[in-house]
Design a protein that fits this description.
Length: 418
């Protein structure tokens, strides 16, 4: 099976009234596509001196099909993080006359490569080696700068070459992570639609539907993943690519990231008063975060009338943030919340639109349905699986919305006595 995504179909004036501009020309998802690397890059007009960026694992996994490149950089696996240290190392080692940076790996390698390509102003090619995250086609990167998790501008790939032979043979927990990352779109889209209803935030219905369809595709692929079917792995990869295209259409991560991602980001940041016992992959954390968010939202939706429960907005204090996040993170968190997006929400708007909010919540698959999908895959699905104890959950829900200044229902909880 071969899946070709022609990104030109997403360029131009949209039914939403805005114009979307795509950097990515195409995504090719097929068995042994890395063996056709030169053919495919020539077909799409990508040439010049290349540098291929790998982690040690992805370098070994693609040993018989490394893309042709004049320079190769292989980062050590135990030191592989999308942070200021790794990006500084790559930028220092990257030869001055390199014109194309090729990411051969999964999420972390792609974040590092996307950021470095953007920083150097050079072309970028994506070669995923696992269906683990949705960032392959994105024009933003989730980076950790001096301990603080943030989304930064980055280069979108001109082409994605996804070799399903490599992807299918990656450790199975990698595709489980991808399922968790795509599952997160259900809550992320609900956040976007709720903000549209309550604050009038712009929403592109086509981008919404592309992302929702990607999530549905992955849910339907779970039985095939368990049977080891190439088609299932290719469908999950396709869904991850399409989520990235949706982000590219929007110019930000709004269609793909909501409260569940903020949960993941806060865990990764490790605030002073929130100790996590052990690490987990990004998609594993967002998968668990999605179940936690869906469970809380379903609980909130049980209340039919909030006319006596909607509160006046109150900003969080710097002292409140400093006490929880600690001195190392406080400056960044305070800066992120300086112009609190929640200030645009009024009690009147919440009351007026509450029935619509409840309808949107019910479009999220139930927490039990989401849990069952991860259970079938024997994937991480309980908070304890990602190092969160039961007595930490309420703290996680309270503080995680503050790591990203974005309107979410989890952030609106500060204005709802539920």
């Amino acid at each position: 099976m071969s899946i070709i995504v022609d990104s030109s179909a997403y360029n131009g004036i949209c039914s939403c009234g805005r114009e979307h501009s795509m950097v990515t020309q195409a995504a090719v998802i097929e068995k042994d596509s890395l063996l056709r690397f030169e053919e495919l890059t020539q077909q799409y007009g990508i040439g010049g001196k290349c540098c291929a960026l790998y982690g040690e694992n992805s370098y070994a996994a693609t040993a018989d099909r490394h893309p042709k490149a004049e320079q190769e950089i292989v980062l050590r696996s135990e030191e592989l993080h999308s942070d200021e240290k790794s990006t500084a190392e790559v930028l220092e080692r990257l030869e001055k006359d390199v014109e194309v940076l090729i990411a051969v790996g999964s999420g972390t390698i792609h974040d590092i490569a996307r950021f470095c390509a953007h920083k150097r102003g050079i072309r970028f090619v994506s070669c995923p080696t696992a269906a683990s995250v949705d960032g392959f086609c994105s024009n933003v990167a989730a980076m950790t700068w001096y301990g603080y998790k943030k989304t930064v501008n980055a280069a979108a790939p001109e082409i994605v070459i996804a070799d399903s032979e490599i992807i299918k043979n990656a450790p199975f927990e990698m595709v489980c992570s991808g399922v968790g990352d795509i599952m997160a779109k259900y809550t992320a889209l609900a956040e976007w639609e709720i903000s549209h209803a309550v604050t009038g935030e712009y929403l592109c219905r086509r981008t919404y539907e592309i992302t929702r369809s990607a999530a549905d595709t992955v849910m339907k692929s779970v039985p095939g993943l368990l049977c080891g079917e190439y088609e299932a792995f290719e469908n999950v990869t396709y869904a991850l690519v399409m989520s990235g295209i949706a982000m590219q259409m929007m110019g930000n991560s709004r269609p793909a990231s909501g409260a569940e991602h903020h949960i993941s980001h806060m865990i990764e940041m490790g605030p002073k008063k929130f100790e996590v016992l052990f690490p987990a992959m990004h998609g594993e954390k967002t998968g668990v975060g999605t179940i936690l968010a869906a469970k809380e939202y379903y609980r909130m939706a049980e209340t039919e009338d909030i006319s006596q429960r909607a509160l006046v907005y109150k900003p969080v204090s710097d002292t409140y943030l400093l006490d929880f996040f600690g001195e190392e993170l406080a400056e960044s968190v305070i800066d992120e919340n300086r112009e609190d997006c929640l200030a645009q929400v009024t009690p009147e708007a919440l009351v007026k639109n509450w029935q619509r909010v409840r309808e949107i919540i019910w479009k999220i698959p139930s927490p039990e349905t989401l849990y069952a999908q991860l259970e079938k895959l024997e994937a991480k699905r309980d908070p304890e699986d990602i190092g969160i104890t039961s007595n930490q959950i309420e703290t996680l829900l309270e503080y995680s919305p503050l790591v990203r200044n974005r309107v979410t229902l989890m952030r609106m909880r500060r204005m709802l006595n539920l």
